Amino acid sequence: MSSDEFIKGRGAQLNVSNRFHEHSHETRDDFLNFCASEGEEPENNRTSIIETFPKTIVNKVTSPDVGMDFSLNPYQGCEHGCIYCYARNSHEYWGYSAGLDFEKKILVKKNAVALLERKLKSKNWQAKPIVLSGNTDCYQPIEKKLKITRSLLKTFLKYRHPVGMITKNALIQRDLDLLKELAQDNLVNVAISITSLQEETRRILEPRTASIKKRLETVEKLSSANVPVTVMMAPIIPSINSHEILPLVKEIADRGALGVGYTIVRLNGAIGEIFSDWIRKTMPDRADKVLHQIENIHGGSLNDSRFGTRMKGEGEFADQVKQQFAIARKLYLKDREKPKLNCKLHEDFKDGQMKLF
After folding, report:
1. Peptide bond into 133 cis (omega under 30)
2. Which residues form a coiled coil (predicted)?
C-alpha cells in the first residue's frame, strides 16, 4: 500500500456504516479525484472533542467473563486507535461509526466527577470496585489537558472507595501521588495493557498509544511505588504477537508485575470489516493467513459473542495459548498475587471525611 493511501496516525482506515442508521454513505472515486485535483483533503482527519452531560456514570457490568462488576468511562471513543478494540462497536450507539469516527470523535463526560461523588454518597450504595476504564482508555491523549481521570481518583481517595484501572498510556505516571495514597489502604490496582514487545507491531496495531518502552517503565515505576500492577496481554492475535507470550511475561515479571492476563482477538460487529480492511492494507502478505486463523479460533467466524468462549477461543491454537500462559506464570510469576481491594473503609467516609462516632 502506498504511503499516500494510508491515513497516518490512525488505526481504522475507513468509516463503516452504522447498523442503527437507515441510510449509509460512501466516498466515491469521482469525489476523491476531484479533491486530488483541487488539492483538498476528502475528510478532516483532526480529532473533535464533544462535551456530553450524562445522567449516570457508574455502569453495572452484566457480562460474566469480563472480570468486573462496575465500570466508569469518562470518555467515549478513543484516540489511541487500536485496530482490534472491542469498544468500537459502542460508538454506534452514540450515532457515529465504529471506524474512524471512534478515533476522531471523542465524547467527554464533563460532569463525571459530580456524578461519581453523588453515587458514592448514596445511602443505597455499598462499596464494590469500580474500574476505570471498562470500555475506553481513561488516560487517552485528551486526559492530559482535561484531567478528569485525575479528579476521579481524588474523589475515590476522598471517599476511600476501591478503584481498578486499565490503561496503555504512560500518562498514568502523572497521578502516582494519588495512586500511592490509595495503595496505602489497598484501594487501587492497575492493569497496564502491553500487546507486544516490538515497537513496530505497536505502531501499526495501536498508533497513538504510549511506546512499549514507556509502558514497561510504567510497570516498573508503579511496582517500585508499591502500587499493585498487573499486565494485560490483550488481545493475542495469531501470527502477529502470538509468538511473544513467554518473553513478554518474563519482561513484565522482571519489572515487578504481580500477574498477567490475556484475551484472544475477536472481531465482533463492525470490527470484522474494519480489521479486515486494515490488515489487507498493512500486512497484505499474511492477511488471509491471519484472518483464517482467527476464524479457526471462533468456530469458523470472525465474530464470536458467546459468553465463556468469546474471550479465550476454542481449538488447537487457543489451547496452545492457554498452555503457554500457564508455563509463563509458573516460570516467572510463581507465588505472586495482587491483593484484593479493600471495600471496608468507604462506609465510614460516605460524607467525605471519617466518621468519629
Report:
1. yes
2. none
* Contact predicate 73/17, CB 8 Å: no
**Backbone phi, psi, residue 226, to 5°:** 65, 30
Residue 290 belongs to a domain: yes
**CA 252 to the chain's CA centroid:** 18
**Distance separating alpha carbons of residues 266 and 305, to the nearest angstrom:** 9
Residue 86 CB partners (closer than 8 Å, separation 6+): 266, 268, 271
Using alpha carbons only, what angle is made at residue 120 by residues 114 and 125, rounded to the nearest 5 degrees?
140
How do residues 78-127 score in pLDDT, each as one tens digit? 999 999 998 999 888 888 988 889 999 999 999 999 999 999 999 999 99
Range of the domain at 292: 45-333
d(CA 25, CA 188): 45
Which pTM does this prediction carry?
0.88
Q: Which three cell numbers stand for residue 18?
A: 452504522
pLDDT digits (tens, 9 = 90+) for 180-235: 999 999 999 999 999 999 999 999 999 999 999 999 999 999 999 999 999 999 99
In a domain, 63, yes or no: yes
C-alpha cell of residue 34: 476531484
The residues pairing with 164 across neighbouring beta strands, listed in sequence order, are 131, 189
Domain count of the fold of the chain: 1
Q: In this structure, what DSSP letter does residue 142 have? A: T
Number of C-beta neighbours around residue 180 at 10 A: 14
- What DSSP character marks residue 297? H
**Is 60 within 8 Å of 50 (Cβ atoms)?**
no
The number of angstroms, rounded, from the C-alpha of 313 to the middle of its chain's C-alpha atoms is 19
Alpha helices in the chain (DSSP H): 29-38, 100-104, 112-121, 143-146, 148-158, 176-184, 199-205, 212-224, 245-254, 271-282, 287-297, 316-332
Nearest to 266 by CA among 326, 230, 318: 318
**Residue 274 within a domain:** yes
Q: Is residue 191 part of a domain?
A: yes
